[in-house]
């Protein structure tokens, strides 16, 4: 018998007043692989992830994690069950320290009452070392550049020992060296058997790190293919639903 998929989303439907945001979309993520989710803006990628995360309630369909059906009521429940997400919009407590942000809502306690600062410092140091993240755990969040804050967010997702980690446009605020660092972290997660869902518009990234690619268009599933069978032009064609003969049309205006 084939190993069951780590995550299976079957026939997910979501409607907003007057808009069918998702129309029977399915997604299967295997352990130890990167599954890219692609589509133009408004294709429904983020809506699908918000349904997984319990941020939105889906109107139809089923979600299975390791073969068991799940319906998360909120993102806290999702994270505690092993589904973590690195959002594009960083939602952080800027006046608090890095380690506060890392353990917010799940502080290690002494005797169930006091926050165990020493344990928090130790665990933060351990996870930063493991991931090679060079950020001072005591630094106040607002003093960090966006790229460092993004790295903290990635470390937080990893610290939940997540089985599934969703990256939503994670490289939009990272430098080239940090993008390489992120890819090393993703490789490490793959080795641990995590399933990665990777949302990005950057084709070269997708083809470089993905094992599988799912393409969505207008709230529907279009195709799921092994990344090595796809070219940039095929992805664009599937995303927009027509042949694109020139990606860079000639400029006709004369100044």
What do you see in this structure?
- With 255 residues, the protein is of the alpha/beta class.
- 33% of the residues lie in helices and 26% in strands.
- The strands form three sheets. It has a six-stranded mixed β-sheet, sandwiched between helices. A four-stranded antiparallel β-sheet has the order 2-1-4-5, with helices on one face. Strands 7-8 form a two-stranded antiparallel ribbon.
- A hairpin with a 2-residue loop joins β1 (7-16) and β2 (19-29).
- The longest helix is centred in the C-terminal third of the chain and has 16 residues, at 176-191.
What is the gist of this entry?
The chain contains eight helices and twelve strands.
Q: End-to-end distance, in Å? A: 65 Å
Number of strands: 12
Low-confidence region ranges: none
Report the β-strand fraction as a percent range.
25-35%
Calculate Rg over CA atoms: 19 Å
Give me the side-by-side strand order of the main sheet.
6-9-10-3-11-12
As an assembly, this protein is single chain
Order of helices and strands: EEEHEEHEHEEHHEHEHEEH
Largest sheet data: 6 strands, mixed
